[in-house]
Every structure is written in structure tokens, then in C-alpha cells.
Amino acid sequence: MKPRDVSDLNPILVCAPYGRDGETIADLLRRGGFEARVFANLPSLAAAVDESTGAVLVTEEGLVAQGALSQVLAVQPGWSDLPVLLLTSPRPSGRPADGQAGRLLADITNAILLERPLGQRSLLSAIDVALRSRRRQFALRDQMALLAQSHEALELKVQERTAELQEEVAQRALAEAALRQSQKMEAVGQLTGGIAHDFNNMLTGVIGSLDIMRRRIASNRLDDLDRFMDAATASASRAAALTQRLLAFSRRQSLDPKPTDINSLAASLNELIRGSVDERIQLQFALDPDVPRAIVDVNQLESALLNLAINARDAMPDGGVLTIGTGAVRLDEAETVQHPGLEPGAYVMITVSDTGVGMTPELVEKVFDPFFTTKPLGQGTGLGLSMVYGFARQSGGHVRIDSRPGAGTRIELLLPATADEAAAEAAPETIAPHGDGQRVLVVEDDPAVRLLVREVLQELGYFPVEAAEPHAAIPILASPTPFDLLISDVGLPGMNGRELAEVARAHRPDLPILFITGYAENATIRADFLGANMSMVAKPFRLEELAAKINEMVTVSA
In the prediction, which pLDDT does 520 show? Predict the structure, then answer.
């Protein structure tokens, strides 16, 4: 027989312990072109088995300690199923192998059972079948290795791509943060620029008027001072209004919400709005008689409606129709989820509609931005709609706008509704009442404000006692000196006015307390801030307003 090419073949391990059986079998295999290695016993053969082994040939006599081979076969790799050829003695037809041969056959899955006597051709044919099976296993192993390499390469690419994506995400996050910071700084720049422009104009009016009055008083020219006093007062009032709008925009103004009849309030503005619009503009009301009351600060709502009406007027330079309407709506969770702070429930809707020029979608997106205005320079502060928006959100409501070029604008102001029948009533006009020597403790850290409050109290006939900060006021409150009223700023060094009020009530449980504040974050909703027999006046205040509030509180406590 022609020797085979053994370059791609693997060794056949032979165990035949009797005489020269092992060498004889190996010689037959080598002459047939196969590589063969002979072992004296099965444990030594089992120790030589590795992934390169082509097949195992064992005679029945060599099965002593066959467990060693069974252990090796049990731990083969997943792709391997090592062929085992077993040479046995002749058996009656159909009788299975028993003894050690039977136990070995039970432990292997790729067994070839050969009976003696066995010719060379039959032996080589069986070996050839076993090695073809083994070659398929090696091919499977190589494919699995390639797949593993491909999988590792794929995992590596996935890891690399994941790292790239993470880097892209990080870079995008940095870019978005930089963009937000840029937009924030742009908004801050726009805000501070607008504030600086308007306040500088107003301060020029105040400072300039005071300088002229000082010069004229020094030269005893007193005949024309009222004109400059009025100019200074007007500029100061404009500055106060601008500050109030800024607080409204930032939702930090002090609100005094109460159940309010919206229809009555809107109707009460009829004459004021008619006097503010061009006579070519038709003003009409569409008030729902069944609209519930709204929880709102009356004064701030009046200011918001007047702002909206003036904006509508400016959008109709050639005349048109201005409509103010009311109605009731109910918002569900789907409508409020996009607006944090807006709760599902019943709302009163106030609409201000015009038939004016309208706005593009790009302008609509910006109308609530601070100091954004479509009016010519010097004709608008750009705080009207931003103030309305901030006021509505601080009140627990919302603002919606619908506008198209040439089709006019409709603004919807939503405010929380209530079933409470008690409506807020407008305070009657009052003149500054005078006191009768009542003792008032004034706690204010700003010397100029403290001076003015003291002078106002003295002018009105009260007896003021001053303290520049809370720790100076506490001993006075703990003393036996009687007091009819405590006037305290909210923002004080070391202790805020509300905390000082608690100390005062510990010493004087029935003492009325009047807070004066320019801004206090924790006093934005007065009902949540004030206790029994407490009230609040916002700076800047007029003498009549302060005097009326002082008289009211002193009279009630008397």
C-alpha cells in the first residue's frame, strides 16, 4: 500500500501491553502512512492525549485502569470528540462488550469497536474513518477560533466605538453647557443693559432735579421748585415700577392673592383702558357671567391687564378691535406636564385679543424674554409681557399666546379658580391720618430709609424709637416700655424681620407688626409669610399709604 502524506495527520496513540502487539499495530499503521505512538499502559497514554491527538487505539488487554482515559475524555473541549478504537476478542453475534470494555464504551461518544482477527486493510480503513472525523473536528475548532477572533475584534470595535460615542456625548454635553452659559450670559447682558439704560435715565431725572433744587434753594430762588419736585418724583416712580416689573418677571414680587371677581375687576378697568387707547380702537368685553372667582393679587392683575391692553393698542396703529374676555377652563395632567409648577385643575381664563399686525413664530418665541421689544428704541422697556408671564407663573397660573402676521394676537392669562364666594374689594381712597403720640419701634438697617420712616412718623404725630438692627431691638422689646406698633424691615443683618417678629411676640403677644420690604424671597406670598395682626407694605411707599396702614393697625389694636 502506498504510504499516505502524513503532513496534515495527527498521531494515533496505541496501548497494547501484551508482547509485541503494540509495535506490530504501530508498524501496520506506519506502513499505511499514519503516525503512531505506543504506550505500555493506559495511564501513560491518557497523559499524552492533547488537542493534537488524532485517535486512540486500545486493545482489550490494555484496559486496566481505564478510568484514566475516561477522565481525559470527560474534559475535552467543546469542539472535540476524540475517536477511540477498541480491539476486542471475538464474541457471539449480537453480544455487547462487557467488563472494562463495556465501562469504557459507556464513557465515550465516538467509539469504534473492532474484533480480532483484524486484517491490515480493515484496520487502516477504520483508522481512516476515525481521522476523517477528527479532521472535521479540527476544522470546526479552527472555525470557532476564527469566530472567537472575529468576536474579540468586534467587541474591541464595539468598545472603541462606545468610547468614541462616550467622548462625543461628553463633548456634546460640554458644548451644550457652553451654549447654555453663552445664552445665559447673553440674557444677563441684555437684562443688565436694559436695566442700566432705563435706570440711568430715571436716576438722571432724580439727581438732576435734586441738584437744580439745591442750587435754587442756595440762591433763594424758590418760585419754581414744584416743577423739579414733580420731575424727580415721576422719575423715582418710574424706577419703582421698573423694579416691580423685574420682580414680577423673576417671580419674586410680594403678592397678596385673594378670591377675586374677575368680571367686576375687568369692568372696573373700562374707563382706564378706554383712556389709554386710540379712539379708532373699538374696546369690547366678552365676560362669562358664570366664571368662578380667581385667587390673585388684584393690584398686580390690574397692572397686567393694562400692560396687555397697551400692547394690543400699539399693535393696531391704524385702529381695530380690542377684546377682553373671561371664561373657565380645566387643565388635565397632559396639558400641565410641560409646565413645572402648573397643577391640573380649574382655572379662570382672561383673554386679551386684538386685530392688529400680529407676529411671526420667531417673535412669538421671544415675547416673554426680558427687555425684548418690537417697539422703536425709547418707546418700550421690553418688560411688559415678561412681567405678565412672571406674575402668572408666580400666581400658580400660566400665559398662552397665539399670533400670526396680519391676523392679530390673542393672549390667554390662566389663574387658579376657587369656589370661595368672598371676593376682594378695592381699598377706598384714604388721606394720611394723624396719630396721637403712639409709640412705634422702627427696626431698619438702612440709615436713609430709617430717617424717612422716622420723619414720616413724627409728621403724622407718632413717637418713633429707632433700632438699626435686630440685636439692638431685642432689649427694647424685652423692656417694660410700652409700644403700640413694631415696624420692621424684612431683610435685616443676622436675623430677618419674621424671626424678629417671633421674638417680639414672645415678649409682647398682642403687639401689631408692620413689615416694610423692598424684596424678600421668603415673603413673595404674603399669606404664607404673615401671622396674626401682621401686615406688609412694599418699598417704595408713599406717605399716604404708610400712614393709612399705620393708622389701621394702631386703631385695630387699641
Answer: 47
Distance between CA atoms of residues 409 and 358, nearest Å: 5
pLDDT in tens, 94-116: 444 556 666 667 777 888 888 88
Q: Is the pLDDT of residue 35 over 80?
A: yes
The closest alpha carbon to 81, from 107, 57, 103, 110, belongs to: 110
Q: How far apart are the C-alpha atoms of 187 and 62, rounded to whole Å?
A: 93
Above 50 in pLDDT, residue 6? no
Residue 257 CB neighbours (<10 A): 22
Q: How many whole angstroms separate alpha carbon 556 and alpha carbon 536? A: 15
Sorted by where each starts, the structural domains of the chain and their CATH numbers stand as 12-118 (3.40.50.2300), 258-418 (3.30.565.10), 439-557 (3.40.50.2300)
Question: Each residue of 339-385: pLDDT tens digit?
Answer: 777 888 889 999 999 998 888 888 887 777 655 555 544 444 444 67
Sheet containing 513-517: which strands, arranged edge to edge?
463-467, 439-443, 485-489, 513-517, 534-538
Using DSSP, state whether 253 is helix, strand or coil.
coil
Say if residue 65's pLDDT is above 90.
no
Contact 58, 99 (CB under 8 A): no
Provide the pLDDT confidence category of residue 38 given band limits of 50, 70 and 90: very high
Its sign, for the CA torsion 4, 6, 7, 9, is positive
C-alpha to C-alpha distance for 555 and 558, rounded to whole angstroms: 5
Give the SS3 label for residue 134.
Answer: helix
User: pLDDT tens for residues 270-294?
Assistant: 888 887 777 888 989 999 888 998 8
Q: Output 60 or 95, whichever has higher pLDDT.
A: 60
Strands (E) in 360-504, as ranges, are 398-403, 409-418, 439-443, 463-467, 485-489
- What is the β-pairing status of strands 55-59 and 398-403? unpaired
Q: Give the DSSP letter of residue 539.
A: S
Of residues 39, 73, 41, 53, the one with CA closest to residue 11: 53
Q: How far apart are CA 26 and CA 36, in angstroms?
A: 5
Q: What does the alpha-carbon distance between residue 294 and residue 307 come to, in Å, rounded to a whole number?
A: 19
Distance CA 90, CA 147 (A): 46
DSSP 279-319: TTEEEEEE--TTPPEEEE-HHHHHHHHHHHHHHHHHT-TT-
CB of 423 within 8 A of CB of 260? yes
Question: Who has greater pLDDT, 64 or 557?
Answer: 64
- Candidates 157, 110, 143; CA nearest to 129 is 110
Whole-angstrom Cα Rg for the chain:
49
Q: How far apart are CA 499 and CA 473, in angstroms?
A: 12
**% of the chain surpassing 90 pLDDT:** 12
Residue with cell 416743577: 227
The three-class DSSP label of residue 331 is strand
Nearest to 85 by CA among 67, 112, 123, 53: 112
The answer to whether 470 touches 444, Cβ cutoff 8 Å, is no
